[in-house]
Structure formats: structure tokens, C-alpha cells
Amino acid sequence: NAGVMQNPRHLVRRRGQEARLRCSPMKGHSHVYWYRQLPEEGLKFMVYLQKENIIDESGMPKERFSAEFPKEGPSILRIQQVVRGDSAAYFCASSPPLTGRDYNEQFFGPGTRLTVL
Amino acid sequence: KNEVEQSPQNLTAQEGEFITINCSYSVGISALHWLQQHPGGGIVSLFMLSSGKKKHGRLIATINIQEKHSSLHITASHPRDSAVYICAVRSYNTDKLIFGTGTRLQVFP
Fold first, then answer.
1. Residue in B86, B95, B98 closest to A56 by CB
2. What are A34-55's pLDDT values in tens digits?
3. Closest Cα partner for A90 from A68, A105, A109?
């Protein structure tokens, strides 16, 4: 059973370009979380998605950032018109559907390191 | 004040030493995670716990819900244990994880 996969692992963009980060959850997992780690800072929650639904996007910047988790395919975190301050490591995590427990463990991907020139 | 505080921020040890990293939190939680992050690397979940104590190899995690405090212990530390250790709590009312800023551990041979 492959773990959470993220690609690309490293992404370089110039200011104003778009960045697309992909996350394939573990097999059988229907919940995806995106986190951002700015240089020398801790991890911060961005968004929580289930298949075709955004459950909680309270950590997403109001502009330029969007996320989706379609019925088929990976979850995508999209950053439009990137700026230097978007340079960070972006991690996704996945968890299985709830089965009576009120919480399932999250499994993290290797991260995508975005550098904006 | 951060909702999750870790101490110490940095820790150096000699190989073989017993290590303790502390985490205090100020919100009601349903679970607490200990995570490990190697330089430039991904994040590995070490433990998820909501009460008591868990042990995995040389690692032990404890939590005291009443005192809102958790500790991660490493017995017989080894240079390969060098990493950043992150405490994260799941707020009782949400599915969001709230992270501490991490403890950077270096173990020297």
C-alpha cells in the first residue's frame, strides 16, 4: 500500500506564474488536508477536503489560493500569480473515512517545496 | 501566545542519552500527535494518543489530559534520531491540527 504521494517534490516558479501541487492520498483514504510550512516557521493548516467537497478552508489565504479534490484523481492545491512570500513547503496528509471513531490518524506526504524567484 | 508550546526549542545530546521533549497546549483536544521531520525531508507520524502512554521501540509518548501536557521520550539516543520533533493537537471541535514550532534535536556520536 503506497503512502501519500505528492508531486512535484520541488517546483520553481517566477513571480506571476501559477503553481499546481498534487496530492494522491493513500488507497482507501477519502479525506485530504493541506498544510504550509514557511521557512523557519511551524506548520499551518490550510484546507480540509473530502471527495468533491471542501469541508474547512479557514486556513487558506483569501486570494490566489484554491484547492479541489475531484471524484477521480489527485487533490490539487493551486496558487495563482505566485509571489515570493508563497515560497514554502506544502504538505498534504490523508486519512480514511470515519468509521464510528471521531478521529482518524493523518498520514503525511513528502511535501512539495515551492520556490518563487 | 501559541496554542501549542514546545520545549526546548533546541536540544543537543550525546549518543546514548535519555531525551525528553515537552509539549503544552491550551485548547481542548481530542488527540495529540508527535511527528518527526528530517532536514529537507517529509513528515513521519510517530504517535497519536488521547490518553495514557504509548511505546514504540526506543520512543515513548505520554499525555496528561488534565494538565494539558505531553512528553516524548527517546531512550538510548542515536545520531539517526537527529531531526525536528513536532507536537500537534487536534482541537476538540474541528478536524484541524494545530502545530507546535518543533524541537530541533541533534545527537552527537
1. B95
2. 999 998 888 999 999 999 899 9
3. A109
